[in-house]
Design goal:
Length: about 250
Amino acid sequence: MSTNANQYGFYFNQARCNACHTCEVACKTWNKIPAGPQKWLRLFKWYTGTFVDVQMHTLFAPCYHCMNPVCVDAAEGAMYKEPKYGAVLIDPDKATNSSLKAAWEACPYGAIVFESDAPTAAASKCTMCIDRLEKGLLPICVAACPQRALDFGKIEDLRSKYGTNTQLEGMPDPTKTAPAVVFTPIGSRKQLVPYDTQSALQLLSTSPNGTTKIFNSPSDVTSVPDGTVRRNKLMMKPTSVEELMYLTVSDND
């Protein structure tokens, strides 16, 4: 376990992220990771609320290089926490498919990713861009973010600058793992142009020429049965690579 003095970590401002996926693309490009489910950095996107009051949420999810990495214990020597930056890394000489699957099971964030659902699929994970750190550079995801939603540094410095919040809504309890990350939540949705939502829904319930009823009452479109909207909550540990791709794909793809 690293102490705060030598633990580096990430900062993510959910309010600034617009889900452009530049961080994901930069990560794959720098690390020469092929297209597909081996995403060392996953950018999750989901929605809450109903029409006309819908809010988009995002989550920057690399490995959070926890100060108490339960994955390391579960991997039985296949993973370790290096001392200079506090990065949680895979030891390629000791790693086996079964040891890394055990580590994935233990990790509440699903940071270890597999190239397929095959029983012998290769596994890999975020390295904190330790190769770049050794050259005095930021992790590629942080350097690439056009919205400046990311930061990186010693965890104690990030906490001094941004606060101590280590959990966003829907995320696992961070108490046991102590992730090396700080979050700023998106906050409540603000109505930039004031209008009465009920009146707007009444207007939208009828076709522009007034001849066709689209829905009978506002509750028809605001009371959505559970399951109607699939990406309506955060799911950090998908059950298959297909589900991982669905949960982290851009709506524009």
